[in-house]
Amino acid sequence: MTMTFISILNNIKSVPNGGLWAWLQVLGSFFLFFNTWGIVNTFGTYQTFYEVGRLSSSTPSDISWIGSLQATSLMLVGSLTGPVYDAGYVRSLVAVGTFFVVFGQMMLSLSTTYYQVLLSQAICVGFGTGCLFIPCVAVLSTYFSTRIATAVGLAAAGSSIGGVIYPIVFYRLQPVIGFAWATRVIGFIMLGTLAISNAVLKVRVLPAGRRKFLELAAWKEVPYTFFVLGTFVGFLGLYTPFFYIQTYAIQTGIASPHLGFYLLAILNAASTFGRVIPNFIADRLGPFNVIIPCTFATGLLCLCLIAAKSIASVIVIAALYGFFSGTFVSLPATIFVYITKNRGMIGTRMGMGFAVTAIGILVGTPISGTILAASGFRYVWVFGGIMTVLAAMSMSVSRVSKGGWKLKAVV
Question: Contact 118/84 with Cβ under 8 angstroms?
Fold first, then answer.
């Protein structure tokens, strides 16, 4: 009976690839992305606000630790919850994640010192997003196979839309009703949108029995190892523009504070299309064939910020960077599914990969902050660009190992 169940799980012909419940899972996952990566994508606005506001006595690197710890908690806790998901506690994960995200946001509204902001925004909200992260994609993998990249892309668009809506809400409300109530309003939006996810998410099948927390054999597979290495190196530099492009434009006089604020919104808005369109193409050309050139382009665009001295050039680069970087967040989960033969091990393999990736997210933006304090923005963009290009090179090794040297191969 167990072998029959596993056969059904691994048989992609049994996956519905559509229908009401399948698309409701996309909707539920959309709002999970909205309140996980969407929150992470918002931190650039808080970075700018804290530098000139209540945390002005802290260095940019110190402040960036808040955002990087939040993103790291998302990935690290997500890696620990992979086996919990596989054990069948999906609804419990989403419910617990919802509580901590909303509770942390409300506690942030009361925070006035660095350590209070760190505990509420980085640790509490970060823990909640970590509980929500694995269900974002793992649930979809039980409803979609041939259209998995499209489904994940539509869901992942929630992270970009969240990264547009939350900064605008904060920017517009904070001067009018103050930091505390602007933060609470965002908390209520989180509660309302996550209620939808709690209502509709439903796993179609689960792995039979309990499994190991780790699958060490995965590290012997070249495609898996070099892909995880690529995501680790890429996340060292990927969020550098997300955290610092506003500060760069405002402090260098390229843009006014009002216009500079909207750079992050422009970047995240463009990222919405970058998470849907490339994923749609990936279903036809293969996920590796899409993520690798997009990652190369992302690194080159970060390097182009070195020469960006006008508001027009910064806006164009921000929009293009948002579009191409979108694939780096939306496609990795699809690739983990793609390179995992046993679909019952998807949760564990994602968790292992994201645990390594979390280290890159943790130290990446603080390194950028340290470089900024020591050498200025020029070398911040050099660091971010080079790390992202190296990520594309590592993923290329993974792609060749998986599908060979033929450029026309669907990999």
Answer: no
Contact 368, 380 (CB under 8 A): yes
Residue pointed to by tokens 């216009």: 259
Label residue 41 by pLDDT band (50, 70, 90).
Answer: confident
- Give per-residue pLDDT as tens, 215-237: 888 898 999 999 999 999 999 99
The residue with tokens 């209070």 is: 116
Residue-range definition of the domain harbouring residue 130: 15-204+212-403
Closest by CA to 306, choosing from 360, 246, 385, 367, is: 385
The answer to the question of residue 10 being in a domain is: no
Alpha carbon separation from 290 to 88, 269, 337 (Å, rounded): 32, 20, 15
Structure tokens at 269: 């808005």
The encoded tokens of residue 141 equal 């993998």
Residue 385 lies in a domain: yes
Strands (E), 143-249: none
Q: Which of 17-31, 294-308, 365-379 has the highest mean pLDDT?
A: 294-308
Number of independent structural domains in the chain: 1
Closest by CA to 194, choosing from 132, 119, 264, is 132
**What CATH number is attached to the domain comprising 131?**
1.20.1250.20
Predicted TM-score (pTM) of the model is 0.82
pLDDT at 1: 34
Cα dist from 80 to 145, 338, 359, 383, whole Å: 25, 21, 14, 30
With tokens 């605008």, the residue in question is: 168
Q: Residue 178 has what pLDDT? A: 93
Mean pLDDT computed over 399-411: 81
Question: Residue 349 to residues 290, 327, 333, 344: CA-CA distances in angstroms?
Answer: 21, 20, 10, 10
Rounded to 5°, the CA angle 403-407-409 comes to 45
pLDDT at 13: 54
Percent of the chain with pLDDT over 90: 42
Is 292 contained in some domain? yes
Tell me the chain's radius of gyration from C-alpha atoms: 20
